[in-house]
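Reminder to self: tokens first, then the designed residues, so the page reads top to bottom the way the pipeline ran.
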């Protein structure tokens, strides 16, 4: 059987016409969504955005699903100003909302986020948004929440975490949030990898619950008003790579159980009121790069075990009550060490000869101890060293600091007594 030759192109043409009509009808921006988008921002889309097309699926930063409902609104760094209106909440199929790095201001109306029940990603970071932190029970699909670097105040209701069963990252850093940190922190989502509560005004103690955070890698809550001891179950959060709690009012010891957190690379709890001795098995933390425990009330000696933390880059334990003869400490395995600060403690003995094998060292602060003796000529082998402070020690009190900056290394000898 043959088809008349002239009908073929005609059939194909109609087929094409039919299909393209269907496709474009399916994809055309939903009228209500179009209107909601248009009224979501005060001063859009004038100069900042190319929203000139009559069909919003062609608009910059917008993606629609096959029914023409807006699913993605991605407008980071578009110099958007003014407030976000309630009509954004009418985009009920929105799954990705990224308005970071703009100058959006004013409060978010209560319920706005609540109505976005498909929301997975919410990034409002780096704006000037204010008022109550908009963490009402969110969509159960929510995975990433970044509200950092705004001016939100109020508290985080614990109901927030109860409904966020898929949450993997929460960043509320750099706001004015107060009250307790949310409790039972991972009870409802075992997927959390990142919690950043830093630079707010959280108070009270760090609640229990971190122990159930089996995937938690980053825990930051520094620069708040937190008090109390480190929660006992933090040592069960086996995936932790970073514990960052500087500048709070935390007290009590760091438990020896910290040796179990073998993925830890950053441990910073400086500017607190920690007491007790350094954890005995700290040497098990072989991935540790940064240990910043300065400005606390730690006691005891610098442990030989610490010398097993062979990836240490910065070791700062200045301004504590540490003591003991450091002469025989063997630093030779710390080949990555760049900064060593043991200043303002009660260390005694001589400067450890083994330090000269830490070839990466750029800065050594041993000032304000009870160390004695002279700098050995081997110091010149530390080619990267640009800062050495040994002032305010026993017989070498030659003034507060000796700087190497710009000096020939051979000049770097202490005047003898
Ligand atoms: C949003 O939806 C509400 C009711 O659901 C309606 O009254 C309002 O006009 C809508 N806003 C826009 C901008 O579409
Ligand atoms: C604005 O977007 C339309 C598509 O919607 C495009 O044709 C036009 O070139 C764009 N204009 C500019 C200045 O980018
Ligand atoms: C939002 O957009 C910025 C800029 O493209 C990007 O760096 C950031 O990762 C995005 N946020 C999320 C949560 O994907
Ligand atoms: C939050 O900030 C708004 C102004 O942005 C203010 O009116 C309100 O009183 C503040 N609330 C709290 C609890 O501080
Ligand atoms: C949280 O956001 C701030 C910026 O506001 C950023 O500096 C910080 O790195 C973020 N935290 C994490 C864990 O990514
Ligand atoms: C996680 O999200 C999926 C859809 O992506 C949803 O089916 C599931 O209920 C959510 N889990 C929880 C615990 O909310
Ligand atoms: C932080 O919260 C405490 C109460 O917990 C309050 O006394 C203090 O004024 C707050 N600080 C700031 C900067 O808001
Ligand atoms: C370290 O973890 C193991 C299991 O992962 C556990 O049996 C042990 O008790 C823990 N040790 C400490 C000191 O917490
Ligand atoms: C350092 O580690 C080695 C093996 O890696 C071990 O034999 C030694 O006991 C450890 N030293 C200290 C002081 O913990
Ligand atoms: C320090 O330890 C290294 C092995 O890491 C060893 O070769 C060296 O002899 C030790 N130095 C001292 C002074 O004990």
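Designed residues (417 positions):
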């Amino acid at each position: 059987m043959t088809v008349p030759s002239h009908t073929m192109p005609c059939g194909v043409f109609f087929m094409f016409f039919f299909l393209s009509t269907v496709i474009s009808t399916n994809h055309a921006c939903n009228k209500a969504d179009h209107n909601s988008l248009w009224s979501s921002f005060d001063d859009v889309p004038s100069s900042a955005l190319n929203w000139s097309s009559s069909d919003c699926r062609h608009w910059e930063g917008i993606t629609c699903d096959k029914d023409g409902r807006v699913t993605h609104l991605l407008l980071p760094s578009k110099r958007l100003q003014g407030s976000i209106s309630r009509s954004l909440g009418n985009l009920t199929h929105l799954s990705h909302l990224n308005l970071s790095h703009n100058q959006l201001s004013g409060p978010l109306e209560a319920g706005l986020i609540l109505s976005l029940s498909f929301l997975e990603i919410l990034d409002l970071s780096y704006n000037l948004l204010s008022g109550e932190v908009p963490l009402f029970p969110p969509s159960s699909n929510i995975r990433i929440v970044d509200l950092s670097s705004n001016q939100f105040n109020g508290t985080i209701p614990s109901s927030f975490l109860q409904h966020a069963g898929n949450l993997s990252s929460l960043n509320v850093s750099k706001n004015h949030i107060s009250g307790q940190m949310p409790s039972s922190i991972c009870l409802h989502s075992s997927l959390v990898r990142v919690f950043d509560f830093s630079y707010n005004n959280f108070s009270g103690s760090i609640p229990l619950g971190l122990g159930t955070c089996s995937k938690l890698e980053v825990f930051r809550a520094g620069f708040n008003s937190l008090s109390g001891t480190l929660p006992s179950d933090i040592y069960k959060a086996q995936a932790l790579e970073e514990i960052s709690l500087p500048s709070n009012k935390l007290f009590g010891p760091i438990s020896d159980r910290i040796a179990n957190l073998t993925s830890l690379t950053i441990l910073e709890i400086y500017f607190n009121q920690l007491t007790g001795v350094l954890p005995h098995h700290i040497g098990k933390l072989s991935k540790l790069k940064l240990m910043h425990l300065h400005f606390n009330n730690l006691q005891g000696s610098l442990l030989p075990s610490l010398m097993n933390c062979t990836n240490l880059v910065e070791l700062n334990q200045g301004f504590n009550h540490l003591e003991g003869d450091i002469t025989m400490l063997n630093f030779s395995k710390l080949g990555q060490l760049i900064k060593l600060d043991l200043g303002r403690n009660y260390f005694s003995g001589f400067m450890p000869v083994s330090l000269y094998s830490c070839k990466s060292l750029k800065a050594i602060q041993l000032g304000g101890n009870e160390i004695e003796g002279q700098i050995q000529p081997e110091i010149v082998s530390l080619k990267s060293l640009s800062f050495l402070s040994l002032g305010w020690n026993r017989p070498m009190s030659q003034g507060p600091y000796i700087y190497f900056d710009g000096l020939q290394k051979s000049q770097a000898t202490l005047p003898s007594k």
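Residues 1-26, 397-417 have pLDDT under 50 and may be disordered.
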